[in-house]
Design brief:
- The complex is a heterodimer.
- Chain A is mostly helical.
- Chain A is about 70% helix and about 5% strand.
- Chain A has one domain (about 10-290).
- Chain A is built from nine helices and four strands; from the N terminus they run ββαααββαααααα.
- Chain A has a two-stranded antiparallel sheet with strand order 1-2. A two-stranded antiparallel ribbon of chain A has the order 3-4.
- In chain A, α6 (about 160-170) runs antiparallel to α7 (about 175-225) and α8 packs antiparallel against α9 (about 275-290).
- The longest helix of chain A is centred in the last third of the chain and has 53 residues, at about 175-225.
- Chain A is globular.
- Chain B has a domain at about 20-135.
- Chain B is built from three helices and no strands.
- The longest helix of chain B is centred in the middle third of the chain and has 133 residues, at about 25-155.
- The chains are: A mainly alpha, B mainly alpha.
- The interface of A and B includes residues 6, 54 and 131 of A.
- Chain A: This is ATP synthase subunit a.
Chain lengths: ~290, ~180
């Protein structure tokens, strides 16, 4: 009766099991392919119909992203990742509310319960973990491209401070060396904690999305099996909002990670005349707000 | 392996399995997401952004052109106004100079005419006087000849001509004085 936590296997292609949530991911891919096909020849004149709608959406999203990045060029660079995440998650979440998703199914050979053909792609931990890892890895890729390999990784494995402690400023006594090395050791520890938090980002991103959407599925399932008519309606409205909010949270957090990864490291801030100090505030504020959701 | 540790590992695998984690499925979903990313990035985002950039470039250019042409038109208006004022001023000037010219020429003509008339008059007067004088002289000569002839006829004898002429002249002068 209840929805099982893992996505269920429908059939095998060679060695690869095909689950019901993968079917939904394919449907979503097909949706995006259709969208791309409809927009295959965009006109640079006055846009009409679907092109106009997508352009307006993109423009709105870019404007929204500007509030976090504070820089249109950065927003545009991050848009493919963040925008795709948002649209894909939103589509997957809302597809779970369509009639037929979770209801049509194959009869399992053993156990005898119904295996639905469709299940929201985001209610599969494999999917959300894939997106979470992809998002965090992307943030590191952008960070390396933007700051350079050493400067980016020096945020996590802070060997630069040792170098500075030993050579950077003219020391007068051995005590200065000791203090410098002590500070460098602390910073190394902080960097390692940051490294752990990178893993935590992946886990929290994927579990938050999975938990919310899966819980929604279960909720709707349970409510509809209690009373099939009318009563599930408010819950479905709730799920529409939850689907939207979760898509927003996931993509916004990814945007914040991307922004932080491409901003100047803290240690070098004093040397670069505090030019990033204002931008730095915004993403951290938003990330704490978003994390609370 | 320590049984407790083994139990722990099994539990760990168990949690992952309960949540449905499976590396094959994970990879498949990663590929799925990659496909979505590719489609949206390569086939939706990039061409649309290109078109949108083109359009905003065009609009910006259009706005700039409009601004420029507006400025040009204003400039042309000012120029036109200036030209009109200048033309009016010139026309007025021409009129004024023409009028003044005409007046001065009229005056000149009048003056010339007057002097001409005066000259003619004085000329006439002089010529009249000259003629009068010439006539008088001629008459005098004629009269004197006549007188000579007359006296010759009267006297029939000529004293010497020098004395004769003097005599005649005195006679004429006395006659003139009497006249």
């Amino acid at each position: 009766m209840a929805v099982p936590v893992p996505a269920e296997e429908l059939f095998l292609i060679g060695n690869l099991p095909v689950t019901n949530s993968m079917v939904n991911a394919w449907v979503a891919i097909a949706g995006f392919v259709v969208l791309a096909w409809l927009l295959r020849r965009p006109k640079s004149g006055a846009p009409r119909g679907i092109q106009n709608a997508v352009e307006a959406l993109f423009d709105f999203m870019l404007g929204f992203m500007d509030q976090v990045t504070g820089d249109r060029a950065k927003s545009r660079r991050f848009f493919p990742v963040v925008g795709t995440l948002f649209l894909f998650i939103l589509l997957s979440n809302w597809m779970g509310l369509l009639p037929g998703v979770g209801t049509f199914g194959l009869n399992a050979e053993h156990g005898g319960h119904l295996i639905p053909i469709f299940r929201p792609a985001t209610s599969d931990l494999n999917m959300t973990l894939a997106m979470g890892i992809a998002a965090v890895v992307m943030s590191h890729v952008f960070g390396i491209v933007h700051l350079g390999f050493f400067r980016h990784w020096n945020k996590f494995i802070q060997l630069g401070t040792f170098w500075k402690a030993l050579t950077g400023f003219r020391h007068r006594s051995p005590a200065d060396y000791l203090v410098g090395i002590f500070v460098a050791l602390i910073e190394l520890g902080v960097g390692l904690i940051e490294l752990v938090s990178e893993v935590a980002k992946m886990v929290s991103l994927s579990l938050r999305l999975f938990g919310n959407i899966f819980a929604g599925e279960v909720l709707i399932h349970v409510i509809s099996s209690l009373v099939a008519f009318l009563i599930p309606v408010p819950f479905m409205f709730l799920e529409i909002i939850v689907g939207m909010v979760q898509a927003l949270v996931f993509s916004l957090l990814t945007l914040v990670y991307l922004t932080i990864a491409t901003s100047e490291p803290h240690g070098e801030e004093k040397e670069s005349h505090d030019r990033k100090s204002h931008d730095e505030l915004v993403p951290t504020e938003i990330s704490t707000v978003a994390a609370q959701i | 392996m320590d049984p407790a540790e083994a139990q722990h590992v099994v539990e760990g695998v168990g949690v992952a399995a309960t949540l449905g984690l499976n590396w094959k499925l994970f990879l498949a979903q990663l590929v799925n997401f990659g496909l979505v990313l590719l489609v949206v990035w390569r086939f939706v985002y990039r061409p649309l952004m290109k078109v949108m950039d083109e359009r905003s470039g065009k609009i910006e250019r259009g706005l700039k052109d409009a601004e420029e042409s507006k400025a040009l038109r204003e400039l042309a208006d000012i120029e036109k106004q200036k030209l009109i004022v200048e033309a009016r001023r010139q026309a007025k000037e021409i009129m004024e100079t023409t009028e003044a010219d005409a007046k001065s020429r009229q005056e000149e003509v009048a003056v010339k005419t007057r002097t001409e008339v005066e000259r003619i008059v004085t000329d006439g007067k002089r010529r009249l006087r000259d003629e009068q004088e010439a006539m008088l002289k001629e008459a005098k000569a004629e009269i004197s000849g006549l007188v000579i002839a007359a006296t010759e006829k009267i006297l029939r004898e000529k004293i010497d001509p020098k004395r004769d002429l003097k005599l005649i002249e005195t006679a004429i002068r006395s006659a003139e004085d009497r006249a």
